């Protein structure tokens, strides 16, 4: 059975997140993303009309996926317990799905692409994620800010740490 366009779109988004997370907007080619997704570059552009549209969709998906994971991690917890659970979940996202790195790339692109609508999307996405962590944890704003500061430090450390040499 052939995958539907929606299934292929999801495959492309997963590939785009992985590639953009490490290469950024300018350092990632759509050809690389198409290859990783297992489809042709022309088909990729049928799903996403421009590289910028694909980058924006990947950025938004990284925030949405992070929010879903944080919400699940917090479940019925409150306060420090909820923040600790979300911290552990965020560490897994960093190593398994590259989502924090993709969000970091989205911020960098929002600052450099001279695209105010994209910057607004990133700002809304960040604010939504902050609001979700605050609401789900019930923690004080200073604790939520510390949570995101810790996440930013871990993400930055991961971004600048060279990968281990191949075996």
Q: What does this 3D model show about the protein?
A:
By secondary structure, the chain is an all-alpha fold. The protein has helices at 5-23, 30-37, 41-47, 51-74, 79-96, 99-112, 116-137, 141-160. The model has no long low-confidence stretch (mean pLDDT 91). The longest helix is centred in the middle third of the chain and has 24 residues, at 51-74. The radius of gyration is 17 Å and the shape is globular. 79% of the residues lie in helices and 0% in strands. The chain contains 8 helices and no strands.
Describe this protein with a few key phrases.
167 residues, mainly alpha, 79% helix
Give the SSE order as H and E letters. HHHHHHHH
Shape: globular
Q: Flag low-confidence runs.
A: none
Largest sheet geometry = none
Q: Assembly state here? A: single chain
Count of runs of 4 or more consecutive helical residues: 8
Topology, number of strands: 0
Structural class: mainly alpha
Average of pLDDT = 91
Residue fraction in strands: under 5%
Helix content: over 70%
Rg from Cα: 17 Å
- Tell me the span between the first and last alpha carbons: 38 Å
Short description:
The chain is an all-alpha fold. The protein contains 8 helices and no strands.
Secondary structure layout plus pairing:
Elements: H1 5-23, H2 30-37, H3 41-47, H4 51-74, H5 79-96, H6 99-112, H7 116-137, H8 141-160
Helix pairs in contact: 1-2, 1-4, 1-6, 4-5, 4-6, 4-7, 5-8, 6-7, 7-8
């Amino acid at each position: 059975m052939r995958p539907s366009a929606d299934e292929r779109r999801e495959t492309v988004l997963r590939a785009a997140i992985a590639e953009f997370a490490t290469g950024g907007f300018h350092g990632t080619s759509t050809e690389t993303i198409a290859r990783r997704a297992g489809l042709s570059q022309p088909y990729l552009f049928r799903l996403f009309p421009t590289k910028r549209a694909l980058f924006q969709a990947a950025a938004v998906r990284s925030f949405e996926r992070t929010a879903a994971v944080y919400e699940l991690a917090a479940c019925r917890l409150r306060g420090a317990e909820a923040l600790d659970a979300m911290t552990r979940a965020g560490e897994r996202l960093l190593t398994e799905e590259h989502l924090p790195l993709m969000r970091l790339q989205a911020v960098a692109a929002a600052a450099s692409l001279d695209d105010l609508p994209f910057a607004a999307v990133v700002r809304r996405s960040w604010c939504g994620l902050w609001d979700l962590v605050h609401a789900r944890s019930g923690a004080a704003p200073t604790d939520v800010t510390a949570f995101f500061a810790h996440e930013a430090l871990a993400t930055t450390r991961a971004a600048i740490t060279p990968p281990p040499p191949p075996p």
